[in-house]
Amino acid sequence: MATIPTDRSPDSTLTFLRTGYPFIGQRCERYGSDIFQTRLLLEPTICLRGRAAAELFYDTERFVRENAMPTRGQRTLTGRGGVQGLDGDAHHDRKAMFMSLMTPAAVQRLGQLFTDEWQARLPAWVLAGTVTLHPEIASMLTRAVCAWAGVPLSDGEADRRTADLQAMIDSAGAVGPRHWRGRLGRKRSESWAGDLVERVRDGSLAAPEDTALRVIAEHRDGTGRPLPRPIAAVELLNVIRPTVAVARFVVFAALALHDHPAWQQRVRGDDDATEQFVQEVRRYYPFFPVSAARVRRDFDWRGYHFPQGRRVLLDLYGTDHDPALWPEPERFRPERFAGWRGDPFALVPQGGGGHLTGHRCAGEWITIELMKRAVSVLTEVIRYDVPPQDLAVDLRRMPTLPASGFVVTTVRRTG
Description:
Elements (H helix, E strand, L loop, with lengths): L12 H7 L3 H9 L3 E6 L2 E6 L2 H7 L5 E2 L6 H8 L9 H12 L4 H25 L1 E3 H17 L5 H16 L6 H26 L9 H7 L10 H31 L2 H5 L4 H14 L5 E6 L3 E3 L2 E3 L4 E5 H5 L43 H18 E4 L21 E7 L2
Parallel strand pairs: 2-8
Antiparallel strand pairs: 1-2, 3-5, 4-10, 5-8, 6-7, 9-10
Helix pairs in contact: 4-9, 6-7, 6-15, 7-8, 7-11, 8-9, 8-11, 9-10, 9-11, 10-11, 11-13, 11-15, 13-15
């Protein structure tokens, strides 16, 4: 039996938080292995990266998600009792609920709502002179996804909801004030979402058929019971929050267009080039760093022993930058996706495996559609200047962004 390389530190939690996205990859390079073990939050943890590791990690016969996410993350980012922490029939039932919302027509409708929100904001951008992209995009996505989900949102309420959603997203991997802002945002958001579900159920709020609010409020589990209010609130936020998080990918797309100006012309009116560009943005730039699971029962893999209950982390960022999968992984090269047929265990910025029954993000198609729409606006609808600013992306911060949030000036329409 092979011995899994072991990190020498008694506990690597603080080192992980200080190192950020490269933590697992650096140690894999150090040990010459795509597997090693360490202690995180005082708990023994196996860390993995690479395609073979991803295929293993998404094997539901070997891993479960129950209690895999640390409590800190549940109190801020994901909530408790949501689809991310379910297994077996319960997971299949809940995942089917989400996938029923992801029809091609529904994805297109959300994309159009985002485009409409952007068009509505452009006059203010033109007059403002200076615009910071990240908060603006997050606000537009909040309004668009709430309209799409059947969630009423007044103008006065939109900013509050966006702030709470952003706090939840920004709290991933955070300690101190960011963590506490995320917990407060989670508490307020769950209260708001729970009230909406109750109003649909008692008939005081009419949610259009096939919208997320209606589907979640009326969903019944395998025993025929409706979701408890707290769980329904979490799942409604599991539609809204990840959509707002796409603002980070939109900002990275803007950064890539700025750093690689030749692609500004290549993507205009060319859906294939836009698809390649968007996929490379998702691969190249950091989104969320890792995904967590627990060993279902003892097993051996490639001579390594995985004991029952052991927490395992898959390095999402490291797998997307694995030189065994992606030649010259630190170069931004969208053309690598020309003719790409897809590999559910190689490109994993939002998880791996299958959409329908696995733990891959149900909203991945939405992410791609929204990013394509954003690239179209940035290259075909408007022109803008990018003034001197700090565009550094700090990999020690999780989740991260360009330091400035990407500031643009002198916005004008193309026509």
